[in-house]
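The data are set out underneath:

___
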Amino acid sequence: MRTKFLSFFLFIALPGVMLAAEAKLLSMSGAVEVRPAREGEWVSATDSMEIPEGGAIRTGAGGMAVMQLPNKSKVWLKENSSLEIEQRQTFSSRLALIFGKIKVRVPHLMRKERFEIRTQAAICAVRGTEFTMGANEEGKLDLQVLFGEVKFKFTIPPAKGPTQFNIPQGQGLTTAEEGKANKPVLLTAKAEREAMENWNPGLKPEERQKELQQKENDRAQIKDFARTTTNAENAVKNFLNVVKESDLEAGRTLKDVHGNTVRVDQRMVRPDANTIQFMNLVKRPSYADFTKPANGFTYNGGAVANRLDYMQMNMGFNTALPARIEEWPSFFNSNSIKPTYASFIMAQKEPTGIFFVAQPYLYIASRDELINNEQTLGLALADDRDIVLTGFLTNDSVNNISAVEGLNRIARLEVTNDGAVTGGLKYTSDNTTKVGVTAGDVVWAQRLTTANGGLSYNMDAEDIGSDQLWSYNAERYGIGGQAGTKIWLAQESYVINNGGAIQTKNNIVSSGTDPFTLLKNVAGETVFYVKNDNPGGNSTYNKISPIDRIGTSNIDLVFIPDLMVAAVQRMLPAITSLGE
């Protein structure tokens, strides 16, 4: 026992002295050589060959290689490149690019962990980053940052200009001519394309572009959804920051319950140190008309091409989150960690704007919980019942606020009640600007009590003696609180498989399949509607007006559990240790 305590003390006190596992050559093609030690001889490389501290790897004409470090960082070498592993310890890694061109992908590091790339002229410190770097033997270099950020510092101060920069994603730096100042610049489309192509060894040129073309299509659709009329960079940094490196990501192609082909992409990112952002993007090449299910809700829209539906969850905390998600179980076990706010945004992009439904939550210290009532809008508590924000956002050219930026502000709870319009909203950053171009086209509404006309409609498979997993629900809301116009928030929910078939309880509990395999073949689908109220109506569905309050028809989201499974797998060792 005494020996174990001594070993533990040395591990904590002297982390830099403990040698880490070795780097490993994952794959290669063409002429590739390895030098096992600083003073060793170059030998022909072999697959899975280990490269220790002090070792090096180089590629000749037509040669390419990819190497992985113990912390899961990967380094790709193009032809005529030479790279040395100067330091490889538990919390400190430093590579030296002697000449040539490399691509580096580094996951989020632990708090005290360092990862650096050195050239003759500069040192690049990275954390959760992907970038390419080229250097020649004269010290000239070329850097492109694809995701994350690179801290760049000249080791030999230039004759003119700053000696260090923080270079964000989408920018790069090329060594300037003698006498001119260096500065980061936006990547050109050509440079970004070359950097993002598949660098794995042994691929044909068209194969290197294949994956990139799919990425570009995905990014083009995402950027289109996020694009503002005047400041695209601001949108990328706020609402849809999916082109930065994700902590976790997952995706799947399947059929929805209507038979449409669906691509679901999920991301979990941290737009700042205190915030978690989860995104679920649903893309359909076509969204066909479908018949209303028995006892379900009427779809009033027609066929749609290239449809995008979106869900985003934001949650802020009172302190910064650990850089590595493996540390989260013990972090969230602390009683001092409190949420500050949360928001859930469901949206569908249309050519003229964005139809959305949102639920805001605010932390109230006196209750020690997140609440979803009128207090989230800065109003006095009158009726402690759920509220929703809904409407159709369009670009406001008068106040220079795009639909996407409006949704950004709603997601951050930067809205309050507009006293001039019943149930209307205005931005807290500009109390004279209403949310939406037309007054009253974006509103907040509160779920009604029985005393003031509250009604609900609920139907599930059990009600008709079926074993299937589906349900239909609708709740009556009052715009601006209890009085005034009433609307219905309705939703259909299904559990489906990858073929779009509705699952039964027996499919789930008696499949004989292990849980992870089962979850890869199931998904959830929820369709949201906002319907007009039918005066004198009751809880019978037929009394609910089939007419949509907003010009669009629904928000149809498909959710896959893949991201949750990935998170559990990443954190499982830490969860087990915490339990012990």
Remarks:
- Residues 1-20, 225-245 have pLDDT under 50 and may be disordered.
- The longest strand covers residues 92-106.
- DSSP finds nine helices and 34 strands in the chain.
- Residues 220-566 form one domain.
